[in-house]
Input
Amino acid sequence: PGAMASPGTPVFSLALTEPVWVRAYIPEPDLGMIQQGMQVEVTSDSFPEKKPSSYPILQILNIYNGNPANSFMIGDSCNDIISGKNAKLNTVAVAYGFNGLTHLQNCKADFTAYTTEDVCKYVLNKNNLF
Output
């Protein structure tokens, strides 16, 4: 009590760890492909090693008891695809992403998707849900 803080100095931090929420933007025509209970992988750049290292993916799989054989790295860069390959995941290159198809041609993804619907169908097919 009674301590002084300079302007801009945090004096309190609040972090909510449960529940975890993710906001994803899915085109309206593709909403019908989304099913409750579908597994997803959410990553961030907060790990000590960055893509293309498999470390972030393996840490998330470990936390959630994920199985690489039925998990997917869906990305728009070669680093995304290489990271997924390094973690032994199924990889999907999205041609409609930030980097575009030309950038992804040499990445050797397991599948190239041209629409969000392509991604959903591929994931569902690989998991025998479609």
Strands lie at 72-75, 90-94, 111-113. Residues 38 and 66 are 13 Å apart (CA to CA). The mean pLDDT is 80.
